[in-house]
């Protein structure tokens, strides 16, 4: 087990002094596996019959919580180091839910949206009474539409919000249901991922405000199909809601390589842009459902140069760092780090389409305005995002409010603003357990991947 990553207790510790860059950051940074990829693969392997192996998987607080939840449901999950991989874990999953053991069992969701939203629909297929709870922040995040939908599909549930108990009946009838997923796309993904095990499968349509994080629904569909499920999708059209249909049927056990987490690459790529530097992320996939694929283009809009080289994604600072006006509804997790760059830019920014960030690990819109405001930043919370006006900044102590992405965002600002200190840097362990060490290695070298960094980065063909 990773020390400390599964506990919700915040241990008071000295704040982490965010290092200031003494010059342009030049580094090759290998980032750990995708949280979303790992936790979907774990769920699908748990529901399949047979043994699955997941290479390069993430081993962090959120994925350890997922492994713990699946073990509680009677699934065998073991972790081994990935053979030959510089980072990552190989999870070995012995699928088949423990339908016969009767429970009661408990699932700790921590503050992992993927655990809280993906495991209840699976628990309904067991014969256990499963009680779900999590960190105080998770209790406040959207869940009720998922529980209502599960009830409608035939699951037996006590409670409308966390904590709640699912009384597994060994089967769920399934059928058609409407969900308001405007608070989180995960409310739909959670239904779809378990749907092949429901008697009639599941048909879900979204009715409500704007659906956030659309690429994650594509990831759910792609991963379900790769595991052998039959899925049909109908996009929103002429006033009709988008619909997803998953047919009942068995899932295959699978061996799969998990992609690097492109969201976890964001602070490192931003470090290049903030310091006039040059950062390469190896193993960046050419084709991916991860919304983080949009990050290089967003950084280019701020003046950076991005290029997918045979060695990975290379991002270099260009002439200046400019403000950004963008709709980030599909790629909301990038908003905090882009805000860090926006406060350092030479012109104002407007980040739109991200009202749902109020419902993430913390209210990210308020937190960014308040906490970066301590540095003197001029950030206004708008109806659906942030308006940022660059002004001179000073150092201060910042609280990430138990939000990994906020902690990493403060580290980016700290590269350019002396005297930034971050409380509870260990909160980065939600997705990037080695963050402080990786950040130090990025700044001081030697680089994390010596066989690549010993060579020059790809030649500059930009003229
Ligand atoms: O399905 C997923 O793996 C995720 C979906 C998104 O959630 P929301 O739709 O709640 O934004 C994203 O923010 C989260 O980090 C991961
Ligand atoms: C919103 C996030 O996480 P979660 O999976 O807990 O929703 C995130 O990682 O930015």
UniProtKB/TrEMBL annotation:
Quaternary structure, from the entry: Monomer.
Protein name per the record: 3-phosphoshikimate 1-carboxyvinyltransferase
Positions bound to 3-phosphoshikimate: 35-36, 40, 184-186, 213, 333, 360
Active site annotation, chain numbering: 333
Location in or out of the cell: Cytoplasm
Superkingdom of origin organism: Bacteria
Gene encoding the protein: aroA
Record PANTHER family: AROM/DEHYDROQUINATE SYNTHASE, PENTAFUNCTIONAL AROM POLYPEPTIDE
Function: Catalyzes the transfer of the enolpyruvyl moiety of phosphoenolpyruvate (PEP) to the 5-hydroxyl of shikimate-3-phosphate (S3P) to produce enolpyruvyl shikimate-3-phosphate and inorganic phosphate.
